[in-house]
Amino acid sequence: MQDGSPIVLDLSATRRRQWNISPDGTAALTISEVRRTDAGRWECRELGSDGSVRKVARVLDLVVGSLSSPGSPSDPYLELEGRRLVHQATVTVKEPQKLSLHCIVSGAIPPVRRIHWSIGEANLTSVSELFVEFSASEDAYTSRSVLALNVTRRVHGKELVCKVHHITWLQAAAVSASLNVLYEPSFSISREPGFGLPLLESMRVSLRCEVDANPPSDPIWVRDDGPLTVSQDSQGFLNFTPVAHEHAGWYRCTTHHEFGFFASFGYFLNVRTAELPLSSDDGNSQLSNGLGQSTNIGCIPDGRPEVTAVNKSLMAIAGRSALLAGQLCSSPRPLRVFWVVRHLVLKPGDVRHPYVAYNLTETEIPNCYMGGLELRRLQVEDSGEVLLVVKNAHGIADALFLLNVTQASSFSASSAAGVVRGCLLLTLLIPVCLLWLRQRIIDSS
What we know:
Elements: E1 17-21, E2 27-31, E3 40-47, E4 53-62, E5 77-80, E6 83-85, E7 89-94, E8 97-108, E9 114-119, E10 122-123, E11 128-135, E12 140-151, E13 159-165, E14 173-192, E15 199-200, E16 205-214, E17 220-223, E18 237-240, E19 249-257, E20 260-263, E21 267-269, E22 271-272, E23 285-288, E24 294-297, E25 306-309, E26 313-317, E27 322-329, E28 336-341, E29 344-346, E30 351-352, E31 355-357, E32 361-362, E33 368-375, E34 384-392, E35 395-406, H1 413-425, H2 430-444
Helix pairs in contact: 1-2
């Protein structure tokens, strides 16, 4: 059998193909004047009396070459944009870009039909194309595998390997190249103590910025509202030893890179001070709260704003919505109001899904407002600290919210009832409470 088909015996006078069976049952096939048509896989099959195959013996894979082309292919090589690359070459390219790499092997009989691509642990063969051509001048085949590679920073420093298999080789031959991917800086900011822990005056605090870029560049801390008052080191650390209230403000990490100037998102360093005493009774005002009760509103005597977290500690359910409500009082009117959640900073009116910061609503109390932050489609990762930061001409104040998101199958009626009772006791927060109830009704429907 040749390539699974019965052979046709040569009955001419030359009898180029002939076979015989010896007395011990050994069958032998003799081929004279071997030709290209004799190439292929040769097998011997033993048939039963009914014509069924009883046994198959693989004899050999026959490769027929010539004096000019012996059949064994030359070593493979890589080609990029028509340029032949040396083995283990370094290819430098800027992110993002699409490369067309060719793996070429020539002088093969039969043609090479197994060429595999890999980068790191990933097999890329499925996104390559194989082309086979016959060269009459070489009397042999050339195989070319073309790989379209989307280059990103994830493949930086990895080795791209082309592996070629041929019937005449005991082992596959391989050729490779290393990828040097140039990419713009990205920033990673960390803090000690970790995010989520409140910072108090006199604590030791460190901010660290790490810049991921190729070629590398150094991190440089800047302060948005003035010059830095503490030193930074070459490793990206900004050390406050200790931190003081005047260090509170917006910071960001920057870098001067070969591709330009880059900066991270702003980070608000919130430094808490000891609670200030409220003004004396003579300075307090009493306002009716609508339920026949009276509410004492304390004002900070130095003119800084006062911020209160209405639902300071909130348990929420993953997949649903939560609303954080904060009351802020400021005279003069606040210059800036920000919600700080995870890595985002939102102003009233901003919508950055899944976060919605509602516009401020005036309350019955003079110079006081209500603000709300809705977190939609909550995830467990949303758990942690959320800040409401208010600034006026006299200073900065903030309120801390602690959000705990848990997995649950349904929203309990007791939780809903608790919200209703809270709203009845906080008529100053009617707009926010109505919004909360409306969202809960939608979620539970």
